[in-house]
Fold this protein.
Amino acid sequence: MIKRRGMLIVLEGCDGCGKSTQARKLVDALNTTPREGEGSLGGHVTHAELWKFPNRDTAIGRLIDEYLQNKCEMEDHAIHLLFAANRWEMVPCLLETLEKGISVIMDRYAFSGLAFSAAKKKKLGFQWCKIADQGLPRPDLVLYLSLSSLEMEARWNKKERDGTMVYIRERYEKVAFQNQVQAEYGKLMMGEDNWHVIEVNNKSIEVIHRNLLNIIKDNVKISTEKVIGKLWL
Ligand code: 2DT
Ligand code: MG
């Protein structure tokens, strides 16, 4: 019998597009899907874990958190490298997890690193930005949630009105900036065979969830038989 590794599945998109909600639902679904029989993933995926980047719990992550909350300033190249270092520090644990046959659903990854840094006014070179993440484990799937800027603004305003405490926007949570970020994502997905774009405007959480789960089901067998690739190499 072939020993199968876990899948590496990344969710990407602008702030407020629903990545975190969908990531949680996917992990729940994969952990409760029957191993065999109707509705199963054919015994290919048994367990899944939720990972998130930036991981604000490490020493590097705490610096990033301060930066995002505007509690400190950081030179653009330096913060870009910290985001990448925050991924590299987790690579041994990530590979071990996949090797055990556990799938990882990741809420942001190197694509956020590139899109957000490249969207800055004093642009960091696209190629320069890529280098820091080159060689990371390559995701089997990148599920990109695409949201219009009108809908994005409506969601943010709702968050601010509904919050019992005043919602304080983080550094990058400005519509014009996020539009630029979406444009940078557009460059990243060109020519890639592992990206799937899911339009999320006016769709219910459940409909989007089923859409994502079907993409995973379609790819699970082939992905888990392959050796994990290296990103941008
Ligand atoms: P969350 O709102 O998802 O916590 O993200 N970011 C993220 C970068 O600029 N570079 C990166 O490498 C990553 C992973 C995106 C916090 C913000 O940090 C941005 C939004
Ligand atoms: Mg955010």
